[in-house]
Amino acid sequence: MADVLTAKGHSVTVIDTDPDRLRTMTDTLDVSTLEGNAASSSVLAEAGVRNADVLVAATDGDEVNLVAASIGRALGAKRAIARLHHRAFFEQGELDYQQHFNIDRLMCPEYSTATAIARALRNPAALAIESFAGGLIDVHEFKVTPDAPALGQPLADLRMPPQTRLAAVMREGSVFVAEAGTCIEPGDRIVLIGAHGVFDDARRLFRTEKPKLRKIVLMGGSPMAVWLCRALRERVWSIRLFETRRSRAEELAEKLDWVTVLNADPTDHSVFAEEQLALAATFVALLDHDEDNIVGAVYAKANGVTESIAVVQRSRYLDLLYHIGVDRSYSPGTVAAKELLDMLDDSPLRLLATLAGEIDALLVRIGPRAEAAGQSLREIQLAPDWVVGALRRDDRAWVPAADDVLNPGDQAMLIGRRGQQDKLVPLLIGP
Question: Is residue 195 part of a domain?
Answer without folding.
Answer: no
